[in-house]
Amino acid sequence: MQRSEQMTFWERIYIPEILRGLAITNYHFVRNFMLHTAHLFGMKKDVNATSTTQYPEERKHYPDNFRGSHRLTLREDSSVRCTACFLCATACPAQCIYIEAGESPDPHVEKFPVRYEIDTLRCIYCGLCVEACPCDAIRMDTYVHPRIWGFDRKDFVEQKELLMHRSRVLAEKGRDGNMNEMLEWYREQDARVYDPQRPEMKNFTNREAPKHYAEAPDHIDDLTAIDRHPVRSGK
After folding, report:
1. 143: region left, alpha or beta (phi > 0 left; psi from -120 to 50 alpha)
2. Among 27, 62, 117, 157, which is least packed by CB within 10 angstroms?
């Protein structure tokens, strides 16, 4: 009510404000149209017509604090640092982390994750799993945005092998290594599913995951929600 009393008569009838908004929209449309036309004739090349990133030909430079796709960190012997304590899964508000623990072959470590999966369709990339981990076993510093390419749910379930692989790529190829590999994966998959004889159709059959990505097992239909209050034996 207080805001309505401060508005002028022309603001209260809304029509001038609507016209002002349309003028701004049409200004940007005409400006970008003219600049694109000038670019076709080799003029005004130093002026960008739009601020939209033409992905994948162009890529944004993500800042250091960007919460990218997850990775599992490794020890010096290349084994996974995770001890399957379930704190990350417990802290996850989306319940997108699924862990199966097993006895570790290392006598100094009690457990390790036999199975560690993240359902990226559920993940909200909040970073709470990183904060909850007591041994710095999971990070989101890969500078890779979530994958946007896939045909079924299994394509978006990231397994332990892939999460460990990102750490190796980051150590061997640097900051842009994982992003370059994901773009390569996009190109490989597009080449596999695209039928040049029928450009209006896509052929989704007989697909195989590239060798540098782990293939999800066929039996995964849905990730079971983790029991946050397990019954302990002897109590």
Report:
1. left
2. 27
Which amino acid makes up residue 214?
A
Question: How is the chain split into domains, by residue range?
Answer: 2-32, 71-193
Q: Using 50, 70 and 90 to split pLDDT, how confident is the model at 137?
A: very high
pLDDT for 188: 82
- Cis peptide upstream of residue 56 (ω within 30 degrees of 0): yes
Its pTM stands at 0.64
Mean pLDDT check: name the lowest of 25-39, 74-88, 183-197, 203-217: 203-217
140 CB-side CA count, 13 A: 23
What is the CATH code for 71-193?
Answer: 3.30.70.3270
pLDDT at 225 over 70: no
Distance CA 49, CA 24 (A): 16
Phi-psi domain of 86 (left: phi exceeds 0; alpha: psi -120 through 50; beta: other): left
Pick the closest to residue 157 from 102, 93, 223 (CA basis).
223
User: What separation in angstroms does the CA of 61 have from each of 54, 58, 143, 166, 175?
Assistant: 13, 10, 9, 18, 11
User: Any long-range contacts for 38-46 (C-beta under 8 Å, 24+ apart)?
Assistant: none
- Please give the helix or strand (H or E) that residue 11 lies within, else none: helix 9-12
32 touches 103 (CB < 8 A): no
Reference 143, options 54, 82, 60, 30; nearest CA is 60
Q: What is the pLDDT of residue 200?
A: 54
